[in-house]
Input
Amino acid sequence: MRIDVVSVIPEVFEPYLGASIMGRARKRDIFAFEAHDLRTWTHDRHRTVDDAPFGGGQGMLMKCEPIFEAVRALSQEGPRPRVVFFSPTGTPFRQADAERLSHEERLLFVCGRYEGMDERAYELADEVISLGDYVLTGGELAALAVIDAVVRLIPGALGDAMSAADESFTDGLLEYAQYTRPADFEGRTVPDVLLSGDHAAVDRWRRKNAVERTALKRPDLIDDAPLSPEELAFARELMAEGALAEGGNARHEC
Ligand code: SAH
Output
């Protein structure tokens, strides 16, 4: 996969995407990455990328001309990229979107800054992603989050193919609780079944724990999760209890 990013602060990407799992994935050619300075596509002496909004109001907006130029120029290099913009007004990003984007040959991310972008620039976007219901100072962190979530799904990126298969959201549920040594930390013990060596029993415990955690922490996911009738009944019971528990105390229990 090839990923290009357009930003007014292109230098923020390298430290993260050059380190650890992302860095290794790049070295192994799982993905190629380049960050481009939006100012490359300006033509005035000050390399201006922003201007005051028509109609007044606070702050500056990103001008549309450099964005059009950048996306047009980069789109002409090689296969047509899927063009992604970022905005709090976009579609909330979910694991299924990461999955979908992980099959693209080329992605081009355009990061907003300041008060956002001239609305006409959005015409270039194949999709607009929101990272969540809060406002960042720029699209760079959103781009990094999306790149990370997408790249780790490309076969070979994590080294161990299994580790992406069994996680939160993949089967519509949050992941079960996990433990490592020591089995007893200052009296806090690990569930016995995990030490039993009985793989079928471990699988049953994990499935039940995943249903339980999801029902208590993210009841909004339960309706779409593929559950057996017994699991659904169990989840509903927990959700009813959770609704009764004052102030969401149950959230911290598992
Ligand atoms: N005035 C805008 C916010 C602009 S924030 C509004 O109220 O909607 C500046 C830039 O940061 C945006 O253009 C976008 O690229 C990025 N950004 C901020 N919050 C974001 C979020 N929750 N998800 C994705 N991108 C975000």
The chain is about 30% helix and 15% strand. The helical segments are 13-17, 20-27, 64-75, 95-101, 140-151, 199-217, 229-244. The chain has two domains: 2-151, 184-253.
